[in-house]
Specification:
three-stranded antiparallel beta sheet; 7 strands; two-stranded antiparallel ribbon; DNA-binding; developmental protein; about 400 residues; Arc Repressor Mutant, subunit A
DNA sequence: AACGCCCACAACCGCCGGTGG
DNA sequence: GCCACCGGCGGTTGTGGGCGT
């Protein structure tokens, strides 16, 4: 638990950096690299703690930082990723390569969060605020559950994506040694440092998530809301990521994620609470790898076997992944209307409530599934298309 | 002009995980 | 295994500028 005492030292300067200090720091790092941050200040002649230097560098002085206003596209990225990842700013920042996590965090807190709130959207759940009042049919709860699960799992995806990218940068991957014949969890673990496969080889994980977004698991759990007590009777949602080899052996998912207040509880099918995040996360490795290769699902000609709700394998060569008007996009449309950059004033949030679709509680499940599907399609496409060489930027 | 309020952003703080001795 | 160090992360605070009264 040893906390770094570096900033406790008396005589160290705090507060805003002066141009002179910036210059010193820049000059030093350009010449020597930062090396040990702790040792840097004295070497660079700065009366700052190393931590302060590091923050100044990473958040401000680094040459590959884009400053200034966020574009609408960047806003969209942030909102979508925030819906997925929550306040994992560093993970979000990996999809906005020239923005720092601090900048994104500030922008969220000062702009986007308020905008969503104004529109009647809960900036935490990304759902209309009154949605919870209309959730007697359980659909909204299920959606929240789904969202929660996805946030949880995608967090790992993000982390791994970043690792992959970093290792990619570090070691100009020239080898082609990697094969993906290993079991899923081993594949990426082993492959992370040395190489990235140049071609997709693990479509099964994509299939899994795809099936998920197509409503398979969601539908299969419809009307299954009475068997859990935790969190208020929310139905089970089986984790797609726990079923990586599902399409291979057609076995039912081994794990179930139940909605909880703050995080998912993984429950084994034998009823034991397992609570092993790693087990679920392992199966995301392949997904990460696939996503990192920038493949567009909608245009993929890969043969995808999709597990549909009743458990059979569905050939999905027609790739029904269409439409980008997910919930977040609707949000963004509403946001664009209310944005001060737009011509009109605040739209009153009608776009948002309209975007929820399922909010009126008419029991029309298909709208609900469509919204969810499109929403996640949109996010997944984003994840797919936003490695460092993404055309987005 | 002076004051107060609000906002945006830079910077700090505290905690955590990883790592090496 | 323990401990100290280091770097990273997310939350919070401080500060300066803009704006309204």
């Amino acid at each position: 638990m040893g906390r770094s005492p570096c900033c406790d030292k008396v005589g160290l300067k705090k507060g805003p950096w002066t141009p002179e200090e910036d210059q010193k720091l820049l000059a030093y790092i350009e010449e020597h690299g930062h090396g040990s941050w702790r040792a840097l200040p004295s070497k660079a002649g700065l009366q700052r703690c190393g931590k302060s230097c590091r923050l100044r560098w990473t958040n401000y002085l680094r040459p590959d930082i884009k400053r200034g206003k966020f574009s609408l596209q960047e806003e969209q990225t942030i909102i979508q990723l925030h819906a997925l990842l929550g306040n994992r700013w560093s993970a979000i920042a990996t999809h906005l390569p020239k923005r720092t996590d601090n900048e994104i965090k500030n922008y969220w807190n000062t702009h986007l969060k308020k905008r969503l709130t104004k529109m009647g959207i809960d900036p935490v759940t990304h759902k209309p605020k009154n949605d919870t009042l209309l959730s007697s049919d359980g659909q909204s709860k299920t959606a929240a559950n789904l969202s929660h699960m996805a946030q949880w799992e995608s967090a790992r995806l993000e982390a791994e994506a970043r690792l992959v990218r970093e290792s990619k940068l570090r070691s100009h991957l020239t080898t082609s040694s990697s094969s993906n014949n290993k079991p899923s969890s081993e594949v990426v673990s082993a492959a992370l440092p040395p190489t990235i496969p140049s071609s997709r080889s693990s479509s099964s994980s994509i299939d899994v998530l795809k099936a998920w977004t197509n409503g398979g698991w969601l539908k299969s759990n419809e009307g299954n809301n009475n068997n859990n007590n935790g969190g208020g009777g929310i139905g089970d949602l089986e984790s797609p990521t726990s079923t990586l080899s599902f399409s291979e052996n057609n076995a039912p998912p081994p794990l179930t994620i139940m909605a909880g207040g703050g995080g998912g509880i993984i429950e084994g099918h034998n009823g034991n609470n397992v609570k092993e995040e790693g087990k679920v996360y392992d199966s995301l490795h392949e997904l990460t790898m696939s996503a990192m290769e920038g493949t567009s699902w909608g245009s993929s000609h890969q043969h995808h076997d999709v597990i549909v709700g009743d458990g059979h394998v569905d050939d999905d060569d027609d790739d029904p992944m269409v439409g980008e008007e997910g919930f977040t996009n609707l949000l963004l449309n509403a946001a664009a209307q209310s944005d001060d950059r737009s011509l009109s004033e605040e739209g009153g949030g009608d776009g948002a409530s309209g975007g929820s679709g399922d909010g009126d509680g008419d029991g029309n499940g298909s709208d609900f599934y469509e919204d969810n599907k499109n929403y996640w399609n949109s996010i997944l496409n984003l994840v797919n298309s936003s490695p460092s060489d993404s055309p987005m930027f």
